[in-house]
Every structure is written in C-alpha cells, then in structure tokens.
Amino acid sequence: MTQVTPYKDKKESKKAQVETMFDNIASSYDRLNHILSAGIDVLWRKKAIRFLSQYEPKVIMDMATGTGDFAFEAMRLKPEIIYAIDLSVNMLDIGQQKSVKKKTTDTIKFIKGDAENLDLESNTIDAITVGFGVRNFENLKTGLKEMNRVMKPGGHIAILELSKPRKFPIKQGFDFYFHNILPIIGKLLSKDNHAYNYLPNSVEAFPENEEFISIMQECGFTESKWTPLTFGICAMYTGSK
Ligand SMILES: C[S@@+](CC[C@H](N)C(=O)[O-])C[C@H]1O[C@@H](n2cnc3c(N)ncnc32)[C@H](O)[C@@H]1O
Predict the structure, then answer these.
(1) Element (H or E) spanning 94, and its range?
(2) Which one of 5, 14, 22, 144 would you pick to mutate in the ligand 1 pocket, going by the greatest count of ligand atoms within 8 A of its CB?
(3) Best probe residue, ligand 1, of 12, 14, 15, 18 (max atoms within 8 Å of C-beta)
(4) How crowded is the C-beta side of 138, counted as CA atoms within 13 Å?
(5) The whole model's pTM is what?
(6) pLDDT digit string (tens) for 41-87?
(7) Which residue of 1, 45, 137, 189 has the fewest C-beta atoms within 10 A of its own C-beta?
(8) Could you give all domains of the chain from N- to C-terminal order, each with its CATH number?
C-alpha cells in the first residue's frame, strides 16, 4: 500500500503529520464535514450503531473519535462506558466541549491515544467503532491487530471508511467533486492548505472492499463483511473475534 501523507515535503512520520493536520483543522472539522458530505456522514454512523445494537455492548471504544460524533451516536446503545480515543488533542478538546453540552461526560471518556499502541487490557471491549480513521493510521495492520487485541472474544467492530464508487455516472461525478471541488472548499474554510488534498489522495490509495476484508481477517477478525453505503461512496466493514 502506498503511504500517502498530508504534507509530502515534510520528513515527519505519517502519524506525526496526521496529528498536526487534525490539530490544525479541528476548529473547522465539524462544519466542513457536514458541508462536504451534505450531512450523509450522520446517516452512515447511525447505520453502524444500528448494526451494533443487536449485541447490546456495554463497554465501547470509539477509535479515532476526533470530535466524538460516533461516540455520541453510540450513546443510543446505553453503554456503561465509551473510551473515545484519538491522537489529536485539539479534536479531543472539541469533543469534550460537545460532551459537556450534551451531558455525556459520565459515560464518554475522551483520551489521547494511538490506535497502534493502546493503553488498554486485552479482551476488555465489547464493541469498537472507527469512523474515517483507519485510512489515517500509519500502519493499518498494527492498528487493526491492536484493536483486535483489546476486543473481547465475541465482541464486534464496525468500521466506516470512504471508498471509490465504481458505476457510471456516480463514479465520474464523485471523482470530479472529490478531486476538484472538495479541495477548494476545504482550503477556503479550514486552516490547512493540504488537508483536503490529502483526503482524496488517501482514499485513492487505500485498500477497500474485499481487499480490506482480507486485511481484517489477517489481523484476527472473523465474520468480516462489507456493505456499500450511498452508491459506494462509503463502506461499512464489520467483524467479530
Ligand atoms: C477524519 S477524522 C474522523 C473523526 C470521527 N471518527 C468522525 O467520524 O468524524 C480521523 C481521526 O483519526 C485520528 N487518528 C488518525 N490516526 C490515529 C491513530 N493512530 N490513533 C488514534 N487516532 C488516530 C485523527 O487524529 C482524526 O481525529
């Protein structure tokens, strides 16, 4: 897999660059996310939480939580605790402020952490959610294996990730929007000139569908399946252990 980094000319690791990028765009992230996806991202998270609801998970980890939208949606599952983990302190700060307003601070614990090296005991998490995070991991397999380690046997994971639609005319329309319009809006509204070029470039290089499923299996997940969402713009990957 080609390693795509936000700032091509910089020498730092992908992880350090991703952390800097999300720290830079944190204050505009929510607004841009909803503008650029026309609010559909909300429906995708709801769908993943509906999938997990059948298992009634009590201990949840929302990996790469960012500003916490997946964790807030997971409150519908009435869990005892949600570990909302991310590399970017600025994203976490906004998540924590939203949590205070939503009165969810007793349940959602925002924690700075790295998906590839978690400070959590093995076999302790009932359900894991990851929204648009795995594409940003420096080492995808290390991150997936680490999430598998902390998940209980019989636990479940739901991963959302952007993907490339394949059918005419959605493919052509989406490609044009994603490569020509989105980077311009992103540049205008965020404080980072590179972040919204990194987005389409990283989606382009990322393994998807069956290829992603075989990586999940290699990393220890069982019953792995993928479901295309909204004409294949997004995919939901689910698995167990
Ligand atoms: C596109 S945002 C997604 C935020 C949120 N999950 C959502 O659905 O809107 C991706 C997040 O992944 C985080 N991230 C990337 N690599 C990570 C890692 N190795 N460990 C933890 N978080 C990571 C970034 O800091 C960023 O906040």
Answers:
(1) helix 89-102
(2) 22
(3) 18
(4) 13
(5) 0.97
(6) 999 999 999 999 999 999 999 999 999 999 999 999 999 999 999 99
(7) 1
(8) 14-240 (3.40.50.150)
Q: What is the 3-state secondary structure (H, E, C) of 208-235?
A: CCHHHHHHHHHCCCEEEEEEEECCCCEE
Distance from C-alpha of 213 to C-alpha of 225, rounded to nearest angstrom = 7
C-alpha 191/C-alpha 14 separation (Å) is 19
The response to whether residue 68 sits with its C-beta less than 6 Å from ligand 1 reads no
Helix (H) / strand (E) containing 85: strand 81-86
Closest ligand 1 atom number to CA of residue 65: 6
Backbone angles phi, psi at 223, to 5 degrees: 50, 35
